Amino acid sequence: MRIALGVEYDGHGYSGWQAQKEGVKTVQETLEQALSVVANEPVRVICAGRTDTGVHGAEQVVHFDIEVDRDDRSWVYGANANLPKDVCVLWATQVSEEFHARFSARRRRYQYVIFNRSVRPTFLAYRTTWEYRPLDEARMQQAANYLIGKHDFNAYRAVGCQAKSPVREVLSLNVTRKGQFVLVDIEANAFLHHMVRNIAGVLMEIGAGKREPEWARQILETCDRTKGGVTAQPFGLYLTGVSYDNEFKLPQVSHTSSIW
């Protein structure tokens, strides 16, 4: 049978999602070890989207194939009993073989959280990205509007990105302020490596008054990563949700509003 899970994790302290060489702590390996205890056999999971070192997941979606019979409650509570406090299974459900956590996904959502004050944070240090310069969220939104739609985002992806095509469709990109927090919410059909962090880096330069809003469009039109801005830190980045067709009937947690 094929099982789908919703997974929440604090990415601080992990070398990203994807399992790597022995001795490197990753979210995937940690989750697989816990699920293997419940299944009493090795479990390998496939995720909706890999996250980098330090990036958090509010609702990552994974699937795995297994022959042993466990009910949904056993997968959730059994896995959580064997997981550290910074990783949690939110839900589990049996799905058809047509479901694929990555290839069946229609949309993905991220939120980038900027802590905007002159003095650095303490307990928020690895939950947000600190920006000491005052940010103008209206200027950032003006710049963000240039990036909405289907574009070649080559200038906004990592140099080492392995995606075959740089074309992605940004469905929404909103910049809001809540007190000292500036929130960048972005939804797209899919994302390139470092795409959100590179967009956030450009928007922060514009918000700080170092560049004009049109700079975001100018970078986009170059299709050249070397013409782009600095890649923002990973700490404030959260994968907030993944959308699938209703036919799969996933019991997903709603993250339509800010997680902050």
Summarize the entry for a quick read.
With 260 residues, this protein is α+β, with helices and mostly antiparallel strands. Helix content is 20%, strand content 28%.
- Main pleated sheet: 10 strands, mixed
The percentage helix is 10-25%
Rg to the nearest angstrom?
19 Å
CATH H level of the largest domain: which superfamily? Pseudouridine synthase I, catalytic domain, C-terminal subdomain
How far is the N terminus from the C terminus? 36 Å
Number of strands: 10
Structural class estimated from helices and strands: alpha+beta
What's the average pLDDT?
A: 95
* Count of the separate structural domains: 2
Any overview of this molecule?
- The chain is of the alpha+beta class and 260 residues long.
- The chain is 20% helix and 28% strand.
- It has helices at 27-39, 72-81, 137-144, 195-207, 214-222; strands at 2-9, 46-47, 56-65, 87-95, 107-116, 129-131, 149-152, 167-178, 181-188, 237-243.
Structural topology:
Blueprint: E1 2-9, H1 27-39, E2 46-47, E3 56-65, H2 72-81, E4 87-95, E5 107-116, E6 129-131, H3 137-144, E7 149-152, E8 167-178, E9 181-188, H4 195-207, H5 214-222, E10 237-243
Parallel strand pairs: 3-10, 5-6
Antiparallel strand pairs: 1-3, 1-4, 2-3, 5-9, 5-10, 7-8, 8-9
Helix pairs in contact: 1-2, 3-4
Defining key terms:
single chain, 260 residues, alpha+beta, Alpha-Beta Plaits, 2 domains, ten-stranded mixed sheet, globular
